[in-house]
Sequence to fold (293 residues):
Amino acid sequence: MSWLQFRIDSTREQSAAIEDALLAAGACSVTLEDNADQAILEPAPGETPLWPKIRVTGLFTADTNTDLATVTATAHLGETLPNYHWEILEDRHWERAWMDDFKPMCFGRRLWICPSWKQPPEPQACNLMLDPGLAFGTGTHPTTALCLQWLDGHDVQGKTVIDYGCGSGVLAIAALLLGARSVIAVDNDPQALLATEENARRNGIDPGKLQPFLPEQLPADSHAELMLANILAGPLLELAPLLSRMTDSGGQLVLSGILANQASELSAHYQHWFSMDAAEFDQDWTRLTGIRR
Fold:
């Protein structure tokens, strides 16, 4: 079955009214997306921020009378619709369509992240077979890539690791495949913990080497020689005392999810507990590392 999309260029101020107009015209659903490549990161609690320029898209059944729907939406809005157009949307298996764009990726010299439905391009390499499912983390984002490159370039053999904000488990599993002794994986999303366990099973990880926890269930005496945290700068600031306490003396710290303009403040904050290295950058993102004093 095909669908019809009614796409309208809008502003932040007008988007809610246009959304209501599309629903009044019979839209099955309405989505809002950035129309000017302007990222919104780390909103304050309770906020639902929108971009200055927005594309509002209404999804309609294929038998919709587009002329009538346009007239109805215009009448409901009470003014002329901004720049708009109709287009046909062919039906697909949307829940798996993103798979087409997820390709094997190499991080450093020996570590590959491979979709679980594809053959690894280098079978003898350290291949992490990944199906992220509903959890964040495929290695495609610079924040994850920065952490994976660090893991590839450092000796984690026999080390204990905490992956705080594990998402799909990509960092936790990479550490184990590279020789880590054990990993504690922490995430506030139960779905992420399920994805981490499933991805670990797919990669043949001994279940006894991976312990998943919600933050409130994390044992008070948890500690590790390597602390990984790929989250966002705001939570990393708040979590600094906890992450520091759980990192062994002389242990290593790897932080990401940090915008370039946030690096100095965050590094200075962690200097209370760690000897911090110079920041490493990838596009607009940063990786911070240090050694626990």
The chain has two domains: 3-91, 98-292. The longest helix spans residues 233-246. The chain has a mean pLDDT of 89. The radius of gyration is 23 Å.
